[in-house]
Structures are given as C-alpha cells and as structure tokens.
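Backbone shape codes:
===
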Amino acid sequence: MRDAAGPGRIRSLMRAGSGGTLRTSYAAEEQVLDTSRKRLALVACLAGLATVAVWGNAYVLLIGCQIGMMLIAVAGVNILVGQAGLMSLGHGAFLAIGAYGMVILHRLLEQAALPAGLVSPVALVLAVAISVLAGAVVGLPSLRVKGLYLAVATLAANFIVIFIIERPGLSPWTGGVDGIDTPRANLLGWQLDTRREIFALIACLAVLALMAAQNLTQSRVGRAFLAIRERDFSAEILGISLMRTKLAAFAISAGYCGLAGALFALFYARILPEQFELQLSLIMVAAVIVGGIGRTLGVVFGVIVIVMVPEAIKVGFGAFGDGGADLAAWRAPLQEIAFGALILAFILYEPHGLARIADRALRAVDRWPFARD
C-alpha cells in the first residue's frame, strides 16, 4: 500500500529536512516575515523596546539610543559592503553630513518662519537627501576602481568632509573644531524634551530602517547588488547597469548614515567633528564583520557587541576602584585592541559572523533529536 503524500505533507517534510522554508513563487521569496518564527521575533523585539521605553532607567535608555543610531548607520554600511561588495572606510563622513546638515537646516528653516512642528521633520528629510546626493558623488570612483583603491577613495572623502567642517571660515555654520549646539526636536507638535522620548523616536526609526534593509535584500535591486558583489562584469552581461546600481548602493547606504547622523544631532546636545572621524567608520565596518557580512540579522548582533564592548571594559575598570589617571589611560587602547581582536577572530574562525553561529544553533534546534552538527 502506497503512502499518500499531499502537497502539505511534502512541504512539512522539506521544511523539517532542510531547516528552511519552501517557497513556491517570487512573491513568497520577497516576503520579509515569511515564517512564524520571524514574526514572533519581531513581536518580541517590539515588546522589549516598549518595555525599555516605559520602564528603562537613564543608563539603559542611553545604551538603547546608541544601539539604535548605530543600527541605522551599520545597516547602511552593510548594504554597500555586505550586499554590493563595495568597500568603504569613509561612512563617518555621511554621518557628519547628516548631523551638521540637520543643525544648519534646522536654523535656516526657523529663520524662514516655517511652523515649529514642521521644522525638525523637514530638516531631517533634507539632511538625509543631502547625504544621499553626497553618497552618489563619493560613489563615482567605484565606476573605475574597487577593492583597496575604492576604500582609499572613500577614506579621502571622510578626511575632506572633516577638513571642511573644521575650517574657521565656516565656523558660524559648523562651529569649527569647537563643535556646535544642536536643536531640540519638535515633530509635528511633539516636543522631544527627554531621553525617553528620543529613545522612542530612535527605536521606531531603527525598526523601520532594518525592515527596509531586509526588504531591499530580497528585492530586485538587492539581487542586483548581490550580482555585482559576486561578479560585476558577469552582472553587466546579464543586463545590470553597473553605473546605476553602484551609485544606487552608495546613495542608499549614505542615506542610512545620514539618517543616523541627523538622529545624532537630535540626541546629543552638542556635536563635534572628532565624533565622525576615521575611528567611527572603522567601528561600523567592524560591526559588519563581527555580525555577519551581508546579513541584516548580523547588523543587530554586530552593533550590540560593538556598543557593549566599551561598556564591558568600563565596568571592568570600575571593578578596580578609581585607579587614577594611569588606569584610565589604558581604557581607550584596550578598547581598540578589543575591536581588533574581535575582527581577527571572526575573520580567521567564523568569516560569516555571529549570524552564521545563530543559524547553526537554530538548525540544530529544528532537527533535534536527529541533529549532529
């Protein structure tokens, strides 16, 4: 007697055997929340963010805001470096453009007598738009060079932006090396006076940014990015425009960083050029590597690790008491050593980052008690 296996039975067997999801159409392939586990994880994250927003203390809200802003910025870096395969060491410049653009545009719009509730939203949108345009300009060298040479070109862009911000002639606009005070946000009458309110805004934008990044990964544009990453001249033979796709990758990535920079300007009472120098760009690249290159989930893991490493070092030094200036002087070097060690460890032992480790753990749970890997 033959065992009748209908379509439902086949799908369940294939899911159980592969640990994945059977997709039968392009529409299903492009869905972001295509499994109950992902939907449940999103609901749990939203519930956790709501809990922090309501009951979190000042320190938890501070860390949450830092993680949220870095999530948006690193998601942008991941789109360029992880998905499109275009190396960049200058994304700190786009955060600077977004932050200083937010402050300058906010002042100009206030002088233009725009309604108070519209000044901050319009300034934020325009700051992101300027960052997008700057990303397209900085991405022009990617049409001729790639790899290390492209990284050097973007690094030069970072130095140029910081150099311009620090010019004494522009200090009435940028504050020069002394920095500039940032405005208080007013979103359609919602005055963001407390850190709790700022956290709510940053958390909402971070969730939307990550969802959009994941959706981009599974869209036609995202697949064009992947094709260029794997073999650009083969992608061009298939009809993908290298110029349009590479510039789009730079523009979208810069837009994400510009949004994070604008939130920097709303979160911190004062911004300084030194906040956006090379170290910030390297930290964002480190987060992509540690979390998992090209993975949106890896962005979350990488940012949490990168943000919490300095806090762990700070707590460790606090365990030794005050320690004086000599002990405090070791904190910054140890932080850089820790970042370097993390990058080396993941490149050597787990090039796909924490996201791959999480994948293996979930597959083992799915296949238990038959899993052996």
